[in-house]
Amino acid sequence: MSEKVFKKISVVGTSSESYEKAVEAAVAKASESVHGLAWFEVKEFRGGLGRDGSIEWQASVEVAFKVD
Amino acid sequence: MSEKVFKKISVVGTSSESYEKAVEAAVAKASESVHGLAWFEVKEFRGGLGRDGSIEWQASVEVAFKVD
Amino acid sequence: MSEKVFKKISVVGTSSESYEKAVEAAVAKASESVHGLAWFEVKEFRGGLGRDGSIEWQASVEVAFKVD
Amino acid sequence: MSEKVFKKISVVGTSSESYEKAVEAAVAKASESVHGLAWFEVKEFRGGLGRDGSIEWQASVEVAFKVD
Amino acid sequence: MSEKVFKKISVVGTSSESYEKAVEAAVAKASESVHGLAWFEVKEFRGGLGRDGSIEWQASVEVAFKVD
Amino acid sequence: MSEKVFKKISVVGTSSESYEKAVEAAVAKASESVHGLAWFEVKEFRGGLGRDGSIEWQASVEVAFKVD
Amino acid sequence: MSEKVFKKISVVGTSSESYEKAVEAAVAKASESVHGLAWFEVKEFRGGLGRDGSIEWQASVEVAFKVD
Amino acid sequence: MSEKVFKKISVVGTSSESYEKAVEAAVAKASESVHGLAWFEVKEFRGGLGRDGSIEWQASVEVAFKVD
Amino acid sequence: MSEKVFKKISVVGTSSESYEKAVEAAVAKASESVHGLAWFEVKEFRGGLGRDGSIEWQASVEVAFKVD
Amino acid sequence: MSEKVFKKISVVGTSSESYEKAVEAAVAKASESVHGLAWFEVKEFRGGLGRDGSIEWQASVEVAFKVD
Amino acid sequence: MSEKVFKKISVVGTSSESYEKAVEAAVAKASESVHGLAWFEVKEFRGGLGRDGSIEWQASVEVAFKVD
Amino acid sequence: MSEKVFKKISVVGTSSESYEKAVEAAVAKASESVHGLAWFEVKEFRGGLGRDGSIEWQASVEVAFKVD
Questions:
Q1: Long-range contacts of D23-29 (CB under 8 A, 24+ apart)
Q2: If exposure means fewest CB atoms within 10 Å of the residue's CB, which of A47, G52, I45, K31 is most exposed?
């Protein structure tokens, strides 16, 4: 059979800059352990609030990659 | 009767830069075929992952416009 | 083949009276552009609040119609 | 700009055989009015039950197509 | 007992620039009336569309803060 | 900056007549403690059933108001 | 032990007048077969659309009743 | 009054062949105890996995029937 | 055919002690009227608050049982 | 008019013992600032994990109270 | 203690034939890397649409397996 | 960059005693294969029902841990 199959892993990325940077951090980390990254789905956006008013942007994503 | 009525169309915009740009692409395309754009609702954020590590930001939105 | 097919359009009706009137406004507007209306599904009830205490009832519905 | 944009339409297909046939009916009907079909998302599976015990398989899908 | 307790308030921030700015506006306003801000959860992203094509980014968040 | 910010409070209104009256009761109560009411979102419709067959219509809404 | 226990049954009421009448029809029917009705929860509002423009209001509710 | 009323019962059908067969098993069993079956809604698709690699297709459906 | 079929009933159990006791009360009551109990799914946890500060733990569960 | 109205506040309680204790902590804190507590709804159960293997049970609840 | 524990992995299977084949592809791939497969839950059904009108059935499932 | 990243794994714990014990079993098993456990989110509570009336409490959780 020639059906393609993908697996998805759940990753939470964080950034002090933006949600896009938080997603990029998550994807970059995922790429260290798996190959064939194909797409991702944002599951939740949250954020941490520091005493100094700083914001930590948090992106919870599911990253899909092709398995051979 | 003077009730206002709106219709919503479902559009998916993409961008290589950010989710805001992806939304703007969706809204810009919607504005080509309908008038009276009023608001939009984000339904999903996803993304495509290229072999070179690039990210395509994808925003699925419902765009509402007033109908006469 | 003889399978029936329906399409659904998303419409937001408003009324100063009730949710039923808001739905009716949405359905009436839908009937101007498509034929064969079959059913609708309420997706959300909201409302606008005027400075004078008035309420604008807002009904977001998906209206289904048969396509030939 | 070179961002791709897609639109999604909501279609309900039916079949006396299976959910796959119901989806195919929906997609076939969508292809009559729009071009560039790209993917679809199943939103709901339901069914009608006849007096004679027959089943009408009903698939509610959102069909996405590329807009130029 | 030494259990920590948090309360959450629901705030909608807006910005003409980005969702991050809209969230920051919401958090900044929350910080005017409560102390001990700890985290926030994004509940919805929407947007307003002006006649001139401008976009008002709207972020609905729940902001949590520690209560003594 | 001139970003607008809104807060939302959660209110449950009841009525022996209809859901619209239940919503109005909730909005009226909200207006006693906050100003600048802007919109509301219906979160749930329930009802209480009396021994005498009477129905208490219950509307759970989130009421948004502008904060300065 | 004296814990109270309730059961819930799922009923769909219809009316040519309003959602409240549709709910009342559902509750009235439920009261014919069970006693101790306590509350109900609205699960979905839909509607049927006749060829003559008439609307059949449909309310899907879960009706709870106390069991001894 | 002439309002129609339906009840819904929750049934889980299983099959070693397909989801359609699993739904049919659920509907067939429902038809043994109630009359006037009208429609069903699929709530969940799951499956059991045997040690020998076999799959048991499981369909959780709500079956609606008309009550007099 | 040898497909297994299950039915699910919706039960709300209460307890002055814990959610586990509330679930047990629901299951115990279900076992009085049906046989072949197989599993349950928690749908919602709520609670009643007495004037004296007491808590009534309320568990809404769907109890599945095998039908022959 | 004599319609009852309730407000709901969102509280997150924590405990090193159980979810029930976490809920009780949330309710106890709510009772310090408002009167007429009537019921609560569990929105989410989470937990914090310490380096020493300890668990902090976290219950996010909406607490409703009657307003005069 | 003798409590059983399961892990779940997220897999997307595809097939040119049916959803059942797509699920089987996902399960078969999962069985290559883990043992003790016990059940799966369908999370989403989607599909890819080829230029030639072909459909790629896509099933997103969570596959659970027992861990020792 | 110094962004923190977390991964989440999906685990189902069981216990004959309580949901807390079921969660603890899931967390304990997770801690055998990964380090840096940070938090968990309860996704579902279910239960198995034995012929002797016994209950197996089942907790489906997502356990997050920090990755370096």
A1: D23/D59, D23/D61, D23/K47, D23/K55, D24/K55, D25/C1, D25/C3, D25/C5, D26/C5, D26/D59, D26/D61, D26/D63, D27/D61, D27/D63, D27/K47, D27/K49, D27/K55, D29/C5, D29/C7, D29/C67
A2: G52
